[in-house]
Specification:
Layout: E1 5-7, E2 19-25, E3 29-37, E4 42-51, E5 54-60, E6 73-81, E7 84-93
């Protein structure tokens, strides 16, 4: 049965020091939310687990997997649901 999953534009955008990403779904799903640089390199996994029906809010503080603040620039965040890429959005971090 098809179901609806939406990855919304982060707010604020551009951002510093943090931004909120909203995900909505109408059924329980396994979701992974990753941040990539414009070259496709993985920066950080923001969420890796169940997405409950309704709204999930995820905050990113502009830090990579090692805790270092990323450079000013454009980043892509992508939502994978049940192992498949569902949506991607762009965001801008200003240092």
């Amino acid at each position: 049965i098809p179901y609806k999953v939406s990855l919304h534009q982060n707010f604020p955008n551009p951002f510093n020091p943090s931004t909120v990403i909203r995900i909505t779904t109408d059924k329980i799903s396994k979701g992974v939310l990753n941040v990539f640089d414009v070259n496709g390199s993985s920066i950080k996994t923001l969420h890796n687990g169940l997405l409950s029906p309704g709204e999930t809010l995820v905050t990113w503080d502009g830090r990579d997997q090692l805790g270092k603040t990323v450079a000013t620039g454009t980043y892509i965040y992508s939502l994978f649901v049940d192992g498949k890429l569902r949506e991607s959005q762009r965001m801008i971090f200003i240092k």
